[in-house]
Amino acid sequence: MNRYLPLAITTLAILAIATLFLVIAPGMQIRGQGAAPGLQPYTEAEARGREVYISMGCVYCHSQQPRATAQAPDAERGWGRASVAGDYAYDAPHLLGTMRSGPDLMDIGDRLPSQGWQLTHLYQPRAISSWSIMPAYPFLFEHKDKAAQGDVVVKLPPAYAPETGVIVANQEALDLVAYLRGMRHDYAPPADGLRDDGYALMAAQAKSKTEAAKSAQ
Amino acid sequence: MTDKNKQDPRLPDETFEPYEANRRIPLPVYWIAIALAIWGVVMLVQTSHSTLLADKERAALDKQDVAANAPVGAEPAASGKTVFNANCATCHGEFGTGSVGAVPPLANSDIVKAGGAKLIAQIAMRGIDGPITVNGTTYDGHMPNFASALDDKEIAAAASYVARTFTGAKDGVSAEAVAEIRKASAGQDPWAGGAELAAATPGLPAQPSAPQAAADMVQNADVATLVSQGAGSVWSCASCHGDQGEGTQTVPRLAGLPAAYIAKQLHDFQQGTRENDSMAYVAKALTDAQITALADHYAVMRAPSGARPSLDGDLARGEQIAREGDWSIGVPACFTCHGPSGFGVAPDFPALAAQQPAYVAHQLAMWAGGSRHNSPLGLMAGIGKALNDADRRAVADYLASLPPVPATPKVELTAMRSDAQPAKETTNDQ
Amino acid sequence: MTSNHPSDTPPPGPDKPSRGQTAKRVIYAVSGGLVLAVLGSLALDYGLAPGWLTGQGNTPTPAAKGDQAKLFTPPDVSTIPDDDFGQSVRRGMAIFNDTGTNAHDYVGNALNCSNCHLDAGRQAYSAPMWAAYPVYPKYRSKNKMVNTMEDRIRGCFTYSMNAQGSPTGGPPPYGSDVYRDLQAYFFWMSKGLPTGEKPEGAGFGKIDKPEKEPSLDRGAEVFAANCAVCHGKDGQGQKDMNGKQVFPPLWGPESYNWGAGMHKVDAAAAFIKHNMPLSEPGKLTTQEAWDVAAFVDSHPRPKDPRQVNGMTVEDAFNKLHHKHDGYYGKTVDGQLLGGGASPQSAGAPQQDGNSGG
Fold it and tell me: Which residues cross the membrane (chain B) (predicted)?
């Protein structure tokens, strides 16, 4: 081994360039972005639900970042408009996620606003979709003989309902559902909001191509 | 040392010390590295170009919105004409002629002459549900309300255009006056035909009396609970479809859909001919009587639009597909079958106006992909396949911009239910 | 670094580069890299790269159908000029699409021009107006004279629009604005087509003879399975909640009369084969198209307006219909066809039809 010096310098330079482009520059861009107008801060229940979301590891299978229409048909799937930086203003840490083993949840509160549905689905996803690969979370619920005042009873089909008594959601489940129902980002994003426009050119080219083909007819 | 070397020349020289040869990097490695570098730079430039382009498009869109909301005074006739042609002409005709036996004329209409632009704005803000007599002919009027689809300036422009162009009136109506009308109309039911209009506006020609809210539909208490609270294992309908049946994103608007269509879909969910796990779960727990009652409940519901264009669709293209179709790709106009202005044609063609855009685009994609396959004759499968992703978003966004469909009149539905039996017998006879 | 140690110094290799060689290598490397980049981008441009690599997928080009390419494309509606001529064109289009309203005095049924001339008269093989306009005036054996476009439209009103049942009892008088506006619309639409040449896409297109004689029973089945969704089980079409006719009636007092071209089974079969069900042309086989055309045209409809002065159906058949492939003058289900259609003889009673047919 020889020439340690140039080797070390080259290594550091590569690292520095990567840091500059992947950490420092984006950091500078995001610094100026406040909360998107229309974005509500989390309520107490939602904030608690967010902690449950993190502790249950939801982020490992669910993303929170719908893509632009030029990149993926997320809007068509009902996953909401492409997110902008301002949508995550109250998220520290953000829960963008990297995997989509399950659907994106950025707009789940708009898409499935039903508390009843969410509770049934958390208790036993297979009760709704026989093919679902999502784990069940029965430990967020309690089996009681009789619902007490103020208890939220989970609606279950006969196949999954207990033989006697009722299934009641505990506070963690209610908080998690409150968080999910609060996931609504249906306001118009700020025009100057930071977003991924990387595919706009490709989309424009594709559009002009089809138009040209049409006019050529 | 020398001894050892001499011992066996075939063995490697033990005194040999390894060293790094100054071997050159092969040329192809350079080629690939340089090509990648060039590609990287090109991508960087392209992405920044792309970002600029998207920014420009957004700015242009904003400007368009501003232009659409430009003060009416600037060029009232032109912008009023645009609003009229886009929103009113689908039923009343470009020349305000209406449609014989169905839609009252605006041109030389005695009502428009008597009430002027202000009356038109009042009607547009609330819609009509009831008989109305125009130029001596009585129409069974069902007009949507445009309160959620058009803003004050647009309604003022269109109303002024109608009064000036079709009856030669001098005065229009100002956006401020329309704002007042909007306030007064908030929460009001549609005008119950010409009689209520005549009561509110002096000088209108004689109007037929509205039918008494004839025999209210047999309201099923069971259904009211089902809708608002759910029952047994079933979640409440309203928890997803909204208190007013207006829907959200991929959850469809139900208010005002034909009863027969809603019932058919629920039965299809039950039998698996339409696939949706959540709805199959619900439908399987419903009895036939409950399905009929639910269908009626939503069919007569008149609710404001809960839909806004939200898919980045090209509205002009969407309007073209909905009103004219695109025969170059074999797609007829949506309105050819779903009725002018997307009101729907019972029982097989649901209303499209004010439907949730994500729902429409999603369903079109499902028709195309084959995961929805319960349309009569498979008509929608072919259409879904012919539309590409951008077209689907365009038409969905356009339909979301329309005013909500007038609900099926309760009276008609009650009549339909009471003579459903005899009607069936007649068809069997043939 | 202690590079003075002898073992560190590589022995002077045979390939120790000299100055000139380095420059040469730099040139080779850079030009090679450039060539590679250029080749790569060319491959991308010519679509040689697979879709999964570019992320573009295979976007189907619209209307890649071979025979569609040859067809004339009429100008877009948005290009109608904004002047007095344009106004006339627009009025013509309004008459075409809502004939009962905009030519109210001359229409005796619930049809519009655009019910058969699809896409506002623009659709090839549904007798598009751009294909008709350039070939008029022409001689027609139907009335044994040279017909101008006005004569031809007059014929449409007389038969297809059943003008005998209209408020005035007849087609628009010669010189009427109805003709003027309709012709302005057709003229505008035919821009660029040579006069006197029948363009591809004219009329209803050709249809082969059926293998089996058309059967009303089979036709009834085809109708129930493919047509009833829109045209109703009783063939009377459907209206929206305002009472506006959305799907046209196919027989009965509100449909075309016995003098209309569509009453001929061969014409109806060609139209159906090439246009129906809407958006799925060609779905029906040739045999099915003939069967269902026969079924539709074997129902009562308004009488032939040429059957006047005490002429019986039999006289009219011998004089006017003996060469036609239709059901005029024949007896179906014990009923002699051609006598006209009263509201009762339609499939279902019409409660609020237009001025009778």
Answer: 27-45
Judge if B276 and B327 occupy the same domain.
Answer: no
Instruction: Please name each of the domains of chain A with its CATH number.
Output: 9-190 (1.10.760.10)
Q: Both B87 and B189 in a single domain?
A: yes
Asked if B93's CB is within 8 angstroms of C102's CB, the reply is yes
Record the pTM.
Answer: 0.81
The per-residue pLDDT for B422 is: 42
Q: What is the ipTM of this complex?
A: 0.80
pLDDT in tens, B62-116: 666 555 544 444 444 448 888 888 888 888 888 888 888 888 888 888 888 888 8
Distance from CA of C36 to the nearest CA of B (A): 6
Q: Are residues B118 and B162 in the same domain?
A: yes
Residue of C70, C99, C241 best to disrupt the B interface, most CBs of B under 10 A: C241
DSSP C335: E
Name the residue among C7, C10, C29 with its Cβ closest to that of B22. C10
Please, which residues bridge with residue B274 across strands? B372
Smallest Cβ distance to C59: which of A206, A214, A217?
A206
Task: Spell out the residues 6+ positions from residue B102 whose beta carbon is closer than 8 angstroms to its own.
Answer: B139, C239, C240, C242, C243, C244, C245
B51 and A200 within 8 Å at the Cβ level: the answer is yes
What is residue B151's predicted lDDT score, i.e. its pLDDT? 83
The answer to whether C58 contacts chain A (CB < 8 Å) is no
Q: Provide the 8-state DSSP code for A163.
A: S
Which B positions 66-85 lie with beta carbon below 8 A of chain C?
Answer: none
CA geometry: angle C233, C236, C242, nearest 5 deg = 115
Other residues' Cβ atoms within 10 Å of the Cβ of residue C352: 9
Q: For residue B375, give the CATH number of its domain.
A: 1.10.760.10
In the structure, what pLDDT confidence band is assigned to residue C355 with cuts at 50, 70 and 90?
very low
- Classify strands B137-143 and B128-134 as parallel, antiparallel or unpaired: antiparallel
